[in-house]
Amino acid sequence: GAVEVSVRSPVACWFSAMLHCFGGSVLSSLMLAEPPVAFLANGTNILLASSVWYLVFYCPQDRFCQCFAFLPLRLLVAGMKEVTRTWKITAGIAHANGHFKDAWLVMVAVGWARGAGGGLISNFEQLVRGVWKPETNELLKMSYPVKVTLIGAVLFTLQHSQYLPIARYNLMFLYTVFLVVSKVTMMLTRSATSPFAPIEAALGSMFFGLPKTPSKVKGEGATSSNDSSVSDRSSSEQHCDSTKKREAKKTE
Amino acid sequence: GAVEVSVRSPVACWFSAMLHCFGGSVLSSLMLAEPPVAFLANGTNILLASSVWYLVFYCPQDRFCQCFAFLPLRLLVAGMKEVTRTWKITAGIAHANGHFKDAWLVMVAVGWARGAGGGLISNFEQLVRGVWKPETNELLKMSYPVKVTLIGAVLFTLQHSQYLPIARYNLMFLYTVFLVVSKVTMMLTRSATSPFAPIEAALGSMFFGLPKTPSKVKGEGATSSNDSSVSDRSSSEQHCDSTKKREAKKTE
Amino acid sequence: GAVEVSVRSPVACWFSAMLHCFGGSVLSSLMLAEPPVAFLANGTNILLASSVWYLVFYCPQDRFCQCFAFLPLRLLVAGMKEVTRTWKITAGIAHANGHFKDAWLVMVAVGWARGAGGGLISNFEQLVRGVWKPETNELLKMSYPVKVTLIGAVLFTLQHSQYLPIARYNLMFLYTVFLVVSKVTMMLTRSATSPFAPIEAALGSMFFGLPKTPSKVKGEGATSSNDSSVSDRSSSEQHCDSTKKREAKKTE
């Protein structure tokens, strides 16, 4: 899909890529009624993301993608992306706290939106490319990055309200290490079973009376739709596309 | 639909319920460029709405729903919901007047959005649950609550601009009584024919040259899709869902 | 489509027409986090646009549309519409410059949104009428007015940053003359081949490595979906509708 769009309409392709990279800041700006175009004002980031986008899609003979198919490089980039996630969550929470003093739910929501924005607005990002899949979205079937960002947002909000007896930099360090380790493990083992699956099943059956087996089946189902960098993609185009997004995200 | 979603993804179900309950404040905040997450800052309301949501969907053996299937209790809750509608409309108009001095259309629009918000954004609320029905929306086929809220918004705006020679509290009292009486009548007679149907048909044929018969046919068609608490639902799940929404709305 | 909607639901039809006329200001307000209902505060414009809307859709025996089927009158109205486009672009750029000092991309984006807003949000305008076409949008397949507005926004931004050695009023004059001449030519020759087609093909093959022939085929394909006032419409209703939109747009 993505390659065809890039040939038919470079503008839509570029806009979709930008929405993927800067979705977090667009969504959190909308939620706090600030100009969602603010991300365009930072010329350096846009330039960096745009050049990565250009190299991925229009580099002759796909040289750029072939570089990033090299595993250690992919691990490095994926790790760096997870590090920025921590920064984005804490920035979102501090931002929300500036608007609404001590409103926990707002802090969690904005931190989550900032950290996982690209995933949460994926329905509208796909609409730009002419794809519309109303029957699913990241709230109905949360992918692993979205889940882990939600947990991070809750943790950092608790820390911010001083309910968690731990210093901020310690929590940031531990959370980032956890993110990077779980991401690298998932990439190396090519498995997509979330580390939270057993906890989720337990919570689900305790609070929501969910039967245990369907919950596990759902877990398997989610496997295939999980983060694209994990599963063993045969189609090199899709791989390229996900590489690009990861790389560009690094630039934020 | 709703029960299946609640089993598959409690997060999407909760978000959809919140969007239904607080849709009015989200929509009017967006229209006036204020943070749409402001409703999350009021912890008490969220807690109340969330506990009702939890009891409706996950109470063992559906005890909670069975309570609200008791008719007098349903009448009471429906009546209270209509009372809050009046408050919401006047709050919306006062709010809009603070931003745009004496702009009548803005006042009508914001008052309407605040009072009937859950209905107007129903397309997007359904999208959260993975349902997408582009061929209809509340503007194309207005339900009775949306219509009556529009009339209320026009009346209160006229009163605010002192075109209507009546005191504010008198108008509020009369409008609320009208809302409650018409709602209770509709629930008791299980009919869904809007009291405005003849007036609408007359206005339609006068200003828009509509043929009289199609307009009536449309009226019949709207019957089935009208406010869910009116029609005699056989499916108890749907009934439960609508009960929940009504109840939760009371909490606003 | 449009006539049927106007019979079934005048409210949705009116709202859709307003969204078409004032889409530019709604979109640019959203992008700069200002109240998107601000356009409703200008009573005169709304009144003018609404009366044109009323005359087009509900005038007995379609007298109003028949007037505008007269070619010289259509040319005049189309020309006036193009003149307002220049004003809207420069207003959008000045507005964006007030919020973000010297952020070029923001200026281009807001100027473009202001000038071509009705086209860019056409997906959502159609949704109000109950039509949903996710497989295409103005970014995937840009129509001529949207393209020419983008070029205008880039030119005026360059001029604003003093990269273009030309006075503002000269640029405005030249750009407006170009707009009007190209529009009138397209209306008279009933052709829809964009004057930019060869330049686009050259740029596409240079930067994006597009094969030359598919690009031309795309050009032909775009012909039929191009600006509705150009192609020789057989259906007089559609013609009426486009006339209305053009006329109403003049009122801004």
Automatic annotation (TrEMBL), chains A, B, C:
Belongs to the TMEM38 family. Homotrimer; conformation seems to be controled by binding to diacylglycerol (DAG). It is a multi-pass membrane protein. It catalyses: K(+)(in) = K(+)(out). The keyword Glycosyltransferase does not apply. Its main location: endoplasmic reticulum. GO terms for molecular function: identical protein binding; potassium channel activity. One of its GO terms (cellular component) is endoplasmic reticulum membrane. It is found in: Endoplasmic reticulum membrane. Intracellular monovalent cation channel required for maintenance of rapid intracellular calcium release. Acts as a potassium counter-ion channel that functions in synchronization with calcium release from intracellular stores. Activated by increased cytosolic Ca(2+) levels. Keywords: Endoplasmic reticulum, Ion channel, Ion transport, Membrane, Potassium, Potassium channel, Potassium transport, Transmembrane, Transmembrane helix, Transport. Residues 234-252 have a biased composition (Basic and acidic residues). This is T38BB protein.
